[in-house]
Design goal:
The protein is mainly alpha-helical and 157 residues long. The protein has one domain. It has seven helices and no strands. Helix 1 crosses helix 2, helix 1 runs parallel beside helix 3 and helix 2 runs antiparallel to helix 3. The longest helix is centred in the middle third of the chain and has 16 residues. It is elongated. The chain starts with 45 loop residues before the first helix and ends with a helix. The relative contact order is 0.11.
């Protein structure tokens, strides 16, 4: 999630027609500079639900906000949100998300283990020492979303 003060769905300062009815920032101090910004708590908000539902429609705003939802999933260790994000994303967005995870959050790849397990791959802790097996894991992520079958079974794990 992004800082509530910058969120396009903010009930007061937002720029989008749709508005969040319960902004998380209302529960925190109003000074994001103090480190109490809702963007740092890893809880789902209206923005995350918007991104997931609109990625299926290739909405430009959802695609622009996808990294904020990725951050929400990683901070909150929200596996279901991360799996939903990969499921909803187009192939090019999945590629961006995968490369971002490889570069900045390789220790969070374990959140994707249900996807890997569903195609018979061993669980990951990180990409360290993976070598040539990397392509198999990358392929599991980049496959067509399996009409939701794989992702539904992965979320059940």
């Amino acid at each position: 999630m992004m800082c509530c003060k910058k969120c396009p769905f903010n009930p007061i300062s937002g720029s989008e027609q749709q508005r969040c009815h319960q902004a998380l920032c209302n529960n925190w101090r109003h000074n994001c500079a103090d480190g109490y910004c809702a963007a740092n708590i890893g809880s789902r908000c209206f923005l995350d639900y918007y991104v997931i539902s609109r990625l299926y429609q290739q909405d430009p705003l959802a695609e622009a906000l996808v990294h904020h939802t990725l951050k929400t999933a990683l901070i909150g260790r929200d596996r279901a949100l991360l799996l939903s994000l990969f499921h909803a994303a187009s192939e090019s967005i999945r590629l961006q998300l995968w490369h971002w995870l490889e570069l900045y959050e390789p220790r969070s790849l374990w959140l994707l283990n249900p996807i890997f397990a569903a195609v018979g791959l061993a669980p990951l802790d990180s990409l360290t020492g993976m070598g040539s097996r990397r392509e198999k894991y990358f392929g599991a992520i980049m496959e067509n979303p399996y009409s939701g079958r794989l992702y539904r079974s992965a979320q059940a794990i």
